[in-house]
Amino acid sequence: MNIKFHHDSHQISDSTPVSFLLALAGGFLDAYTYISRGGVFANAQTGNIVLVGIHAAQGQVAKAFVYLIPITAFAAGVFITEIIKSYFKECSKLHWRQIILLIECAILFLTAFFPENLNVAANILISFVCAFQVDSFRKWHGHAFATTMCTGNLRTGTELICTSLLKKDKVLFVRGFVYYAIILTFVAGAAAGCLMTNYFYHKALFFSIIPLAACIFLMCIKERKSK
Predict the structure, then answer these.
(1) What is the mean pLDDT of residues 84-104?
(2) For the purposes of burial, counting CB atoms within 10 Å of the CB of 223, is it exposed (0-12), middle (13-18) or buried (19 or more)?
(3) CA angle in degrees (0–180, nearest 5) for 32-119-38
(4) Which bin fits 201, alpha (ψ -120 to 50), beta or left (φ > 0)?
(5) What is residue 151's DSSP assignment?
(6) In a 3-state reduction of DSSP, which class is residue 140?
(7) What's the CA gap between 185 and 177, in Å, rounded?
(8) Could you say which DSSP state residue 145 is in?
């Protein structure tokens, strides 16, 4: 059975391999910060926002501030991403998304050396680079999705599968299935993050760089072929 999607992207940045690798890294980072950096989520800012409200209502201002910091860092990351995109969008030697991933890898590498007393700084930097990723990689084969959170993917995947059953459309079913596969990949990344963090603790962050580096490599191959 040869199934083709209604929109096949020519960009490697929204291809299936890159999407799965980024989801793997996203799940890993969330587990890492939650386990080793004070119970803070690097990607799931909705959870952090809820915790800000809970601690503020309980009069625990200091705790509320701890969760407010990664939220602010995430917003700053989106802001910086847009600036990088604006300046390097026409760059012929290196795609702006490759620049984003290179910066992300460099920051994660340095953050792995931060000791326990610098957890706040570590969460700032990790939330910052997670915003890089979520703002730079928004589509899979031209369809909206996220690599650092699952709620939107769960909704879209379920909607597509339901619609495919009602309309008997195999293409929609496969698309929906891929969204669920991306969620499972995120879960696998979180599981890997948990295991690695329990074993290597702060240095486990080095392993999150592997899927990001693989994405850069894939994008470099695509660039060479296109030239």
Answers:
(1) 86
(2) middle
(3) 60
(4) left
(5) H
(6) strand
(7) 12
(8) -
User: CB under 8 Å to 59, separation ≥6 — which residues?
Assistant: none
Tell me the two tokens of residue 173. 């079913």
Q: How many CB atoms lie within 10 A of CB 184?
A: 14
Q: What is the pLDDT of residues 145-195, one digit of tens each?
A: 888 788 889 999 999 999 999 999 999 999 999 999 999 999 999 999 999
What is the torsion angle, in degrees rounded to the nearest 10, for the CA atoms of residue 178, residue 15, residue 196 and residue 190? Answer: -40
Confirm if 111 and 205 have CB atoms less than 8 A apart: yes
Locate the DSSP E strands across 14-170.
Answer: 139-140, 143-144
What's the alpha-carbon Rg for the chain, to the nearest Å?
Answer: 18
AA letter at 211: P
Match 């997670």 to its residue by tokens.
Answer: 130
pLDDT in tens, 204-215: 999 999 999 999
Q: Computed from CA positions of residues 150, 156, 157, 162, in that sequence, does the dihedral angle turn out positive or negative?
A: positive
**CA–CA distance, 212 with 166 (Å, rounded to integer):** 38
